[in-house]
Amino acid sequence: MKLARYILILLAVFALAAAPQAKKAPSKTPAKTEAGKSATLLDINTASEADLKALPGIGPAYSAKIIQGRPYRAKNQLVQKNIVPQATYDKIKDLIIAKQPAAKK
Questions:
Q1: Long-range contact list for 1-7, CB < 8 A, 24+ apart?
Q2: How far apart are CA 69 and CA 27, in angstroms?
Q3: pTM across the whole model
């Protein structure tokens, strides 16, 4: 009787181990690596008007104001300089970056 129970437990363990694992749902948060992060973010210091208009809440007027307000040291300067309202900034803040030009040697 003990042998049958032992064999049944072993079979259950092997069945669970051999069963296909459920796939993990893809994460909706952006990657945390610096390389992956900068590759997907739009640089507000160099983006074209068309690229800026593709952002949620940014139309022709805001994209023109963003271009006129360049250069930006930080992306939150869009709100500090009254370029876009806080609500619009909240929609795009995870999609943009304000890169600095490389220092001249």
A1: none
A2: 34
A3: 0.61
